[in-house]
């Protein structure tokens, strides 16, 4: 596998009025709910992350996943009861980080990402006045355009 330069882009949102709703309607049967199960965090991280080089957590055992899940707010999207994606929100000193945002392969390109991101932004802003995230050039090519289309603004771009 060839190595290409990685660029990390950081984005933020501080104004709830700046959230832009998706033009595409939500998929019928979409539900997004809080989940408190470290096995769900682990499974979704591993399954979604396999497509995007998510490796930071691959060596974690059950105890580490349990500690992590207790420190984040996890919300899972389902469509007609089938898991489609999730996000993890992690409060920190600067606001709330969207620490993980991802869709399973079958849900990519369906318009679900915009709706799940709006959920992450609203849930984050309910916890703090600033929501922020990082994306990189290893992520799905639709990620950055989705983030900007929903109202997030770039505050930093750097090599990774």
How would you describe this protein?
The protein has 160 residues and is an alpha+beta fold. It has a single domain (7-159), classed as Aminopeptidase, CATH 3.40.630.30. It contains 4 helices and 7 strands. The protein has helices spanning 38-49, 62-71, 112-127, 143-149, and strands at 7-13, 30-35, 73-79, 82-92, 95-103, 131-136, 153-159. A 7-stranded mixed β-sheet has the order 2-3-4-5-6-1-7, with helices on both faces. A hairpin with a 2-residue loop joins strand 4 and strand 5 (95-103). The protein is globular, with a radius of gyration of 15 Å. The two termini are 18 Å apart. The mean pLDDT is 95.
Strand and helix layout:
Blueprint: E1 7-13, E2 30-35, H1 38-49, H2 62-71, E3 73-79, E4 82-92, E5 95-103, H3 112-127, E6 131-136, H4 143-149, E7 153-159
Parallel strand pairs: 5-6
Antiparallel strand pairs: 1-6, 1-7, 2-3, 3-4, 4-5
Task: Sum this structure up briefly.
This protein is an alpha+beta fold and 160 residues long. It has helices at 38-49, 62-71, 112-127, 143-149; strands spanning 7-13, 30-35, 73-79, 82-92, 95-103, 131-136, 153-159. Helix content is 28%, strand content 33%.
Could you state the oligomeric state of the chains shown? single chain
Tell me the count of domains.
Answer: 1
How is the main sheet built? 7 strands, mixed
What is the strand arrangement across the widest sheet?
Answer: 2-3-4-5-6-1-7
- Helix content, binned percent: 25-40%
Structural class designation? alpha+beta
Secondary-structure arrangement, i.e. CATH architecture:
3-Layer(aba) Sandwich
Strand content: 25-35%
Number of continuous helical runs:
4
SSE string: EEHHEEEHEHE
CATH fold-level name? Aminopeptidase
Stretches with pLDDT under 50, minimum 5 residues = none
Mean pLDDT: 95
Q: Quick one: overall form?
A: globular
Count every beta strand, where a strand is a DSSP E run of 2 or more residues: 7
Could you tell me the radius of gyration in angstroms? 15 Å
Distance between the termini: 18 Å
What's the CATH superfamily, by name?
Answer: Gcn5-related N-acetyltransferase (GNAT)
Query: Could you name the CATH class?
Result: Alpha Beta
InterPro entries: Acyl_CoA_acyltransferase, GNAT_dom
Protein name: N-acetyltransferase domain-containing protein
Domain N-acetyltransferase: 21-160
């Amino acid at each position: 596998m060839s190595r290409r330069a990685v660029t990390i882009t950081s984005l933020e949102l501080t104004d709830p009025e700046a959230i832009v709703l998706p033009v595409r309607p939500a998929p019928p049967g979409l539900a997004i709910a809080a989940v408190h199960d470290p096995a769900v965090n682990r499974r979704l991280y591993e399954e979604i992350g396999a497509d995007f080089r998510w490796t930071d957590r691959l060596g974690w055992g059950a105890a580490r996943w349990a500690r992590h899940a207790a420190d984040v707010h996890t919300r899972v999207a389902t469509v007609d009861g089938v898991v489609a994606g999730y996000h993890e929100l992690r409060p920190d000193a600067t606001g709330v980080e969207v620490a993980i945002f991802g869709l399973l392969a079958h849900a990519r390109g369906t318009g679900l990402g915009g709706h799940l991101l709006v959920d992450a932004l609203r849930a984050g802003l309910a916890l703090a006045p600033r929501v922020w995230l990082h994306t990189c050039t290893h992520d799905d090519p639709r990620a950055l355009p989705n983030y900007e289309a929903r109202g997030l603004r770039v505050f930093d771009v750097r090599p990774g």
